Amino acid sequence: MEDNILKRMSLDTIGIGASLACAVHCALLPLLITVLPLLGSHILENEKLEYGLLFFSFGVGCLSLGRGYFRHHRRIAPLLIFTVGFALLLGGHFGIAGGYWEPVVIFTGAAGVTGAHILNLRRCKQCVVHKHG
């Protein structure tokens, strides 16, 4: 088989993975924060890692959703869902929703970003330009 894994992976697939990695990181951090110092590991509470995940997720989202919109389906819903989801992610990370609500806001934002990629992927597969072009 000449199809390698990189050819089959789309930017939406990578975006879904990045969003899920961010969600898992944010969901597990509060649980693991008490255990990690005992193990001597501080990588999960690294601010640069969080900013890197956010930057990567935003970049992949802009590329894949922009390409889906301009080259394929011309539907605005994935872009709007991504924008709201990413705004929630930023709000959660920068303390707009503090305390108990922070992980809820971050998870909701990550779910929105993931949902936007899934919707974009479906719209691209359904559109006439994608099927024939």
Describe the structure.
- This protein has 133 residues and is mainly α.
- The chain is built from 7 helices and no strands.
- Helix 2 runs antiparallel to helix 4 and helix 4 packs antiparallel against helix 5.
- The chain is elongated and about 55 Å long.
Structural class per helix/strand content? mainly alpha
Rg (CA only): 17 Å
Could you give the distance between the termini?
23 Å
Overall outline: elongated
- Can you count the helices? 7
Summarize the SSE layout with pairings.
Blueprint: H1 5-8, H2 11-32, H3 36-39, H4 47-73, H5 77-93, H6 101-126, H7 128-132
Condensed summary:
With 133 residues, the protein is mainly α.
Name its key features.
disordered N terminus, mainly alpha, 133 residues
